[in-house]
Amino acid sequence: MRLLAVVVLYHPGKDLAGNINSYLSQADRLLLWDNTPGGGKEQLPLSGVTHPERLEYRGCGRNVGIGTALNDAVAYAREHGYTHLLTLDQDSYFLPGVFRDYTAAIRSYGEEKRVIFSVNYFIKSQQAPFYPVADRVDEVSSAMTSGTVYPVGLFEELGVFMEELFVWGIDCEYCWRAARKGVRTVCFKNILLQHDLGYQKKKHRLLGKEVFPNEYPPARTYYNVRNGMVLHRLYPESLNLKAHLRYHLYKRIVFVLLYEKQKIAKWKALWDGYRDGKRGKLGERGQ
């Protein structure tokens, strides 16, 4: 397995180097695609990276969305003969030795198989795993971007990531598209990636129940609503629209009112996302 990794950056924090070190030793090369507007390699907190010779900085000085960044990595993998592509978020990391176990598990399962490989997620804000931890490999409906490994040959067969979504749902859409072609997404339930969901900051009590608002900024709020509506039309068997809107629109209206900052900007994003979702609009917001 020749493994190319890509991590998409957007105003990364000071923990970036430590996160990278948790998987870099097992990757042949890591692309740092910088979506930070006006960013540059010299501005990245990379001091302490253990294998700097394996890094390659890429980007164009503005935020082009996740899909474009991932598709650049797909093209790079094809051009340079990599067999597998690992996609990552900047905030995710593996505990010591876990990523080595992950690559060994892929080889043992069959790296040549026509499947998408994914991990279990330890959700840091909730201090709990996404799936119950078990020593088995199970088929799942989809995987998050971070920690997923794609055989590069799949992109020839299935096409590349759906750039028009810009941010939310790119990972799910690819897995759902693959499933229609008989390509399974499998999860190693005992391989944990330290990860968080969105921008959750603080738990609250509402009507006697504990709630944990997902405090996405306005831009991400827009894509969450819009893309869910678009993807429901494309994959009605995979995305429950009522459940999606209940979480990303209706509850969010209340949570923004009660707990979040930037209320007007977020309410406008919710409305714009719903309106553009009804229209089937794709691409970057406002264009």
From TrEMBL:
One of its GO terms (molecular function) is glycosyltransferase activity. The keyword Glycosyltransferase applies. Keywords: Glycosyltransferase, Transferase. The keyword Glycosyltransferase applies. Belongs to the glycosyltransferase 2 family. This is Putative glycosyltransferase. The lineage of its organism: Bacteria, Pseudomonadati, Bacteroidota, Bacteroidia, Bacteroidales.
